[in-house]
Write a structure and sequence with these properties.
By secondary structure, the protein is of the alpha+beta class. It has helices spanning 2-26, 97-100, 102-131; strands spanning 28-40, 43-51, 57-63, 76-81, 91-92. It has a five-stranded antiparallel sheet with strand order 3-2-1-4-5, with no helix packed on it. A hairpin with a 2-residue loop joins strand 1 (28-40) and strand 2. The longest helix has 30 residues, at 102-131. The radius of gyration is 20 Å and the shape is elongated.
């Protein structure tokens, strides 16, 4: 059972890693303006409006975790976005690599924890069989 959970966690970790790498390689930066701040279910958001490289005006909501520091309404900000889907996955361009890869790091930490648990469980099973 632990091996199955480890496999599922590994699949999520691989997907999160590929997503983060794609965003890192393909994202484009743009200047924007914060037009609204709001809260929903104890999470703070800031809506930012920016114009893509193709001239499309986009409004995106970024959660507090997508910002290096939460900007005020009217603040000029620099954002990163994917040209294929500019309204989704927008983030503060000032974020460092660790912040951009935080979700894959968390996923891989879970995989390692479950792998250790699976190994420990297997080792205990072998010890128990030797005692019998």
């Amino acid at each position: 059972m632990i091996a199955l959970i480890t496999g599922l966690a590994a699949a999520f970790a691989v997907a999160a890693t590929f997503d983060a790498v794609q965003r890192d390689r393909e994202s484009v930066e743009a200047d924007g303006t914060v037009v609204k701040r709001w809260r929903e279910r104890k999470i703070s958001y800031a809506d930012v409006v920016f114009t893509t490289a193709t001239g499309t005006r986009v409004r995106a909501s970024l959660s507090k975790g997508d910002w290096t520091s939460m900007p005020k309404v009217g603040a000029r900000v620099r954002v990163r976005y994917l040209p294929t889907d500019p309204a989704d996955g927008v983030a503060d361009a000032r974020q460092g690599r660790i912040s951009r890869y935080r979700m894959p790091i968390v996923h891989w930490a879970v995989v390692v924890a479950f792998a250790i648990a699976a190994g420990w469980s297997q080792r205990q099973s072998i010890k128990d069989r030797r005692r019998d």
